[in-house]
């Protein structure tokens, strides 16, 4: 009787297993295909997002560097003094002088020391003291395409205009993003014709 009861239970269990339907091979392939497509789309979106984020971070880093550079140069140019004794500049009583074929600006700072910003290759340099101390102001992460200075019509003592300098920079980051930035700086000290 015990033996018969166990046999009946095994038959009942097997009949329940046979009555339950499983998945066919076609259903499994369709489900696997849908899952693979969803996974592929998700991964492509994720990779595209990472690439976009890298490009954005590179652009932001370049913009931060150039913004700092422009602020540094503007502050120095704003604090320039007239070179009365031709210590730094070639002309008498000049405020600023364009150098390096239009890609540089030289002036006298408050300590009666010459200071110059100029483009050499794809890097902006600062020269303090006529070659005594030269520092690169841009990192190798950015390439300076253009550095223009102007206008020079208010830089001498023959007018009533306060000396002002317009700086224009165009840089390219390693991801080929180009940034253009321009600022105009007026000399801090009142320097009109007396």
Summarize the structure.
The chain is of the alpha+beta class and 194 residues long. It is built from 2 helices and 8 strands; from the N terminus they run H-H-E-E-E-E-E-E-E-E.
Write out key terms for the chains shown.
rod-shaped, single chain, three-stranded antiparallel sheet, 194 residues, 37% helix, five-stranded antiparallel sheet, 2 helices, alpha+beta
What do you see in this structure?
The protein is α+β, with helices and mostly antiparallel strands and 194 residues long. It folds into 2 domains: 2-51, no CATH class; 68-186, no CATH class. It contains 2 helices and 8 strands. The longest helix has 54 residues, at 25-78.
Q: Compute the number of strand runs.
A: 8
Poorly predicted ranges (pLDDT <50, ≥5 residues)?
Answer: none
Q: So what's the overall shape? A: rod-shaped
Topology pattern, helix = H, strand = E: HHEEEEEEEE
Going by helix content, strand content and strand pairing, the class is alpha+beta
Assess the beta-strand content as a share of residues. 25-35%
Radius of gyration equals: 36 Å
Tally of separate domains: 2
Largest sheet: 5 strands, antiparallel
What is the residue-averaged pLDDT?
A: 83
Question: How helical, in percent, are the residues?
Answer: 25-40%
How far is the first residue's CA from the last residue's CA? 128 Å
Major beta sheet, strand line-up? 1-2-3-4-5
Count of helical segments? Answer: 2
């Amino acid at each position: 009787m015990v033996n018969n009861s166990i046999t009946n239970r095994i038959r009942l269990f097997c009949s329940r297993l046979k009555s339950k339907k499983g998945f066919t091979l076609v259903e499994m392939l369709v489900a696997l295909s849908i899952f693979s497509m969803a996974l592929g789309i998700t991964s492509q979106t994720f990779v595209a997002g990472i690439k976009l984020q890298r490009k954005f971070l590179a652009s932001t880093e370049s913009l931060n560097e150039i913004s700092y550079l422009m602020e540094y140069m503007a502050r120095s140019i704003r604090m320039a003094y007239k070179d009365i004794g031709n210590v730094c500049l070639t002309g008498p009583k000049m405020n600023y002088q364009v150098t390096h074929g239009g890609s540089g600006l030289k002036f006298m700072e408050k300590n009666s020391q010459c200071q110059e910003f100029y483009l050499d290759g794809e890097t902006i340099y600062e020269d303090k003291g006529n070659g005594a101390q030269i520092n690169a102001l841009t990192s190798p992460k950015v390439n300076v395409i253009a550095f223009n200075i102007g206008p020079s019509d208010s830089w001498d003592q023959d007018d009533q205009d306060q000396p002002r300098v317009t700086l224009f920079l165009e840089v390219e980051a390693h991801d080929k993003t180009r940034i253009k930035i321009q600022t105009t700086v007026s000399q801090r000290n009142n320097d009109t014709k007396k």
